[in-house]
Write a structure and sequence with these properties.
The protein has about 270 residues and is α+β, with helices and mostly antiparallel strands. The protein contains seven helices and 14 strands.
């Protein structure tokens, strides 16, 4: 995966999540034919003709309101604001086994899906329904790639689909498709932090990279911690726990949000002796 090994600061993400998908069958069809296909998928499409449907200029009008279980979503061609944020060439964008075509943002090729206000965006039931809807839409549009805004992360659409299917069967969230792991160089040395975990647990992770450790070793460990937080909630108190290997330990120290900084869990890895 692209771990974001750049000196450019990580840009903030908006609090409300959205997904983009790039699909081979998104261009050229009529609104009526698309509405019929969406209805056959059980998504209850309702045509929305407002000039600025989401209030932020991220979606082109007219668009559709889709409903699936507890999730209500605005769906339509992505407008410039969303496409600019998802630019795969931007230093703040991460990619997981994804290489997009130069024509990815051609008119109508990229659609955006924005959960509407209701329950809190990170509510487990609502997000579960949203991801189930995305599986249907990936199939409908024959999508090649998907972008998840809280992580500013592009993934291969079929891999994302398979991971969500696994989540529905096992209850294990597809952490690598929902959370980006970003390596940074600072005056204190190399570190790695998460982006997008805050949506599910209210916290991000940040860890110094021990000497000699690879990016893959760090992602393996931080993804396990992120998964635990997604399933069991935030880290509320300092704690020490055993690591993945014999003799390895992990210190977790939560830090409260301050100013523009989000609540973070500082992670320190070490070994006995």
């Amino acid at each position: 995966m692209d771990d974001g090994n750049r000196d450019t600061p990580i840009l903030p993400v908006p609090p409300e999540p959205f997904a983009l998908i790039v699909g081979a069958t998104m261009q050229g069809g009529s609104d009526s034919a698309l509405e019929s296909s969406l209805r056959h998928m059980g998504l209850q499409p309702e045509l929305v003709r407002a000039d600025n449907p989401d209030g932020a200029g991220r979606i082109a009008a007219p668009c559709f309101r889709l409903t699936f279980g507890a999730a209500s979503v605005l769906a339509g061609p992505a407008a410039g604001a969303a496409l600019d944020m998802a630019d795969p060439g931007h230093p703040s964008t991460s990619l997981l086994a994804a290489s997009l075509s130069p024509t990815w943002r051609d008119r109508g090729a990229c659609w955006i899906f924005i959960p509407e206000p209701g329950e809190a965006p990170g509510t487990a039931t609502r997000m579960r329904e949203f991801f189930k809807m995305m599986v249907l839409l990936i199939d409908l549009f024959d999508a090649s790639h998907i972008f998840w805004s809280p992580a500013r992360l592009w993934s291969d659409a079929l891999q994302f689909r398979a991971s969500v299917a696994e989540m529905l069967a096992s209850g294990m969230p597809p952490v690598l498709h929902l959370v980006a792991f970003r390596r940074q160089e600072t005056s204190a040395g190399a570190s790695m932090g998460t982006r997008g975990l805050v949506l599910f647990s209210g916290q991000e992770l940040e860890a110094r990279i021990p000497g000699g450790w690879t990016v893959a070793e760090m992602v393996r460990r931080l993804s396990r911690l992120a998964l635990d937080m997604m399933l069991n909630g935030p880290v509320r108190h300092d704690r020490t726990m055993r690591g993945l290997e014999a003799g390895e330990w992990i210190d977790l120290s939560p830090r409260a949000a301050s100013g523009n900084l989000r609540s973070t869990v500082v992670v320190e890895f070490g070994r006995d002796g």
